[in-house]
């Protein structure tokens, strides 16, 4: 499990920058997909980030959890909203998702702590 979620996103961002340099066309296309998917339409961006968080938990991707918790916090997600999101992820993914939901809750706690600002 990740001990420092904010630090993880900083490190991953640097790694992803290197990946963008090595595979620019693929990463540009991926960024375009992300931008299109996150554009608010029937759902606002915060809701979309919470959905991405639930999927991150269900597919057991700690790195994804880190980025989507951070983005959900930046979009104003409350602890209650994150907890309901994690409940849905557990419902859909059973026991393994419960374990990763605990990771996401730890990430939320770290990203909302005063030192994370």
Quick tags:
AhpD-like, 80% helix, 117 residues, mainly alpha
In short:
This protein has 117 residues and is mostly helical. The protein has 5 helices and no strands.
List the topology elements:
Blueprint (H helix, E strand, L loop, with lengths): L4 H18 L1 H15 L6 H14 L3 H13 L4 H34 L5
Helix pairs in contact: 1-2, 1-4, 3-4, 3-5, 4-5
Describe the structure.
The protein is mostly helical and 117 residues long. The chain has a single domain (5-116), classed as AhpD-like (Up-down Bundle), CATH 1.20.1290.10. Helix content is 80%, strand content 0%. It is built from 5 helices and no strands. It has helices at residues 5-22, 24-38, 45-58, 62-74, 79-112. The radius of gyration is 14 Å and the shape is globular.
Q: Residue-averaged pLDDT, rounded?
A: 93
The number of distinct helices, counting runs of at least 4 residues, comes to 5
Q: Sheet with the most strands? A: none
Enumerate the spans where pLDDT stays under 50 for 5 or more consecutive residues: none
Question: What is the correct CATH architecture?
Answer: Up-down Bundle
Question: Helix share of residues?
Answer: over 70%
The chain-level structural class is mainly alpha
User: What separation lies between the terminal Cα atoms?
Assistant: 22 Å
Number of domains: 1
Described by the principal axes of the CA atoms, the overall outline is globular
Name of the level-1 CATH class: Mainly Alpha
For the secondary structure, the number of strands is 0
Q: Radius of gyration in whole Å, from Cα?
A: 14 Å
State the fourth-level CATH superfamily.
AhpD-like
At the fold tier of CATH, the topology name is AhpD-like
Give the SSE order as H and E letters: HHHHH
